[in-house]
Amino acid sequence: MRYVLLTAAFTFLLSPPAAAQAPPESQSWLRDRGTGLPTSMFGTFIGKGELIVYPFFEAYVDNDFEYKPEELGSVGEVDYRGRYRAKEGLVLVAYGVTDRLAVEFEIAGISATLDKSPNDPSPLPNRLEESGLGDVEGQIRWRWNRESATKPEFFSFTEVVVPHAKDKPLIGTPGVEIKFGTGLVRGFSWGTIVARGSVEYEGGSSSQFDSGEYAVEFVRRLNRHFRIYAGIEGTQDEVSAIGELQLHITPHVMIKANTGIGLTSKATDFAPEIGMLFTIPIR
């Protein structure tokens, strides 16, 4: 973290101010996001020939984490609520292949603990600790049309999470997970709205399709250095509110800091994130 902050300060002092990147007046609806395609990262967009590298850190605090002992390698089908803590380091790499197509890859390392509920009589240890490889996933994102003065932009995406670490049920992925989603983007004079939804297939012993992630998001560029993001994101009955501040310290370097706060009992109570995003034009 010290290295990230020192690098940010050094870059800020030696770099010229970030370009406004304002679209032509005839395309004022693109003021907040430019012409890029939405990525999976909050309030982040990618253009043709751009390579995004985003190393970031995320923590999770949940005092009423829902679990079944059998899901964690023990015995018992009853739902309990335990105390969950985790720290995760992640790297996302994305590339804008064309104006319409982008690909993403993300890998994580995680350390997590779960203190079981005092009401749980199962032989599950009082504290379960696991660390190692976290989610490994890839995405393909496609833009169906460009936003105009009269109609929104539509996009779709497919996400695949690779199964791994089946012997670590707290952090592993027992079967392949595939998500199919679609969304829209619409710019207004007061900000830009992104809405999306998906369905998800979870492999494993009880493979099934189910409703996936959904979100309504707001993005607003305040000036050439700052952009703000606010969103409501959920999966079934796990709903969180997210707020993010983005600092553009150069045209190609941005600091992202956000916090997720659980709005329902099954959502993670508190999930802060910070990272530095690099956009490298390689076309």
Describe this structure in words.
With 283 residues, this protein is mainly beta. The protein has one domain (2-281): Porin. Helix content is 5%, strand content 58%. The chain is built from 1 helix and 14 strands; from the N terminus they run αββββββββββββββ. The protein has one helix at 2-14, and strands at 37-38, 45-46, 50-67, 80-96, 101-115, 127-143, 153-161, 177-188, 191-202, 208-221, 226-235, 238-250, 253-262, 270-281. The strands form 2 sheets. It has a 12-stranded antiparallel beta barrel. A two-stranded antiparallel sheet has the order 1-2. The longest helix is centred in the N-terminal third of the chain and has 13 residues, at 2-14. The protein is elongated and about 65 Å long.
Question: Which key terms come to mind for this protein?
Answer:
two-stranded antiparallel ribbon; 12-stranded antiparallel beta barrel; 283 residues; mainly beta; Porin; 5% helix; 58% strand; 1 helix
